[in-house]
Amino acid sequence: MRNADLVAARRAAIVIGLVLATLLGAALIWATRRVLLWTVIAAFFAVALKPLVDALQQRFVRHRAVATLLIFLAVIGVLAASVTVILLPLLDEFGRFADRAPHLLREVRDGQGPVGEALDRLGLRQYVAGHSAKIEQYGGRFGEPAVGLLRGVVETFAGLVTVVVLAYLMVLEAPRITAGVTALLGDGPARRARRIGRGISRVITGYLSGNLLISVICGALTFLVLILTGVPFAGVIALFVALADLVPLVGATLGAIFATGAGFLHSRTAGIVVLVFFVVYQQIENHLLEPVIMSRAVRLNPLTVLVSVLFAAELAGLVGALLAIPAAGIGQLLLREFGPSGRRPPPAPAAPAGR
Description:
Elements: H1 2-31, H2 33-59, H3 64-110, H4 113-122, H5 125-130, H6 132-140, H7 146-172, H8 174-184, H9 187-229, H10 234-244, H11 250-266, H12 268-298, H13 302-338
């Protein structure tokens, strides 16, 4: 009985210890979730940029640090130029809008102009006129959360800098890390680890190139629709839509709202045309373009791509949608390597030659 009691107590202690360790690990992950997210995003981009650095180092630049710095400066320069091309016209337009704001407000109160006519049709003009004092009071409160907004901007900038630095160091130290890991393994496991690493790099690079191709298609079609409807700044708006489309889930919606709003500010007909275009296009992109292009870029079948995005977005939101397709591709790669089909029996020894 004593031995049985000791065994039961030991098992209970092991179970309690495992539960406590699991809770402690979950609490640690939750406490460091921001740093873990930055690390995952940095690793994501480091794997995508490593082939470019390797190619530059092999062909033109011998020093790894110089090649890495040149690639990162080129990427940052392209992103900065894109943001500048978008922000400068937008700031100019916001300045014009601020100058015209009093005139637009008078038009709204009188039921004139596109906004005033829309409010009049919806029966909201009388409400706006009757509650103009409250609306102005609420508008005056927009400056109150400026400190919180500034804090969010600072945190976002700090996170962006951290991700860039982490990705830079990962790419820079990749050969040493790879050499150190393979040195601890035997010849067979080292070859498999290199093969898995090349496969993961191909999956992530294919995902990024496929996502970029979809964004280019979205931006080009948006530019065509805006040009045909006569909406001003069609190129800037289309570029913003293309960049926003790179962000899963919310990006395409934000781009559509921005472009549709610009269309309605131009004319009612243009706004309706742009709205119908985005409603139709997003259905085509979500159910046709993305599954087909991603299936070829990541070498997954379209059903797996669509199901992975839906489940990951439901479970983990924006981050899950961002990592769903490459995670599915990496999972398929690991199944091929470590599954039954990937375990090939060693070759049989050759029979001795007969005398």
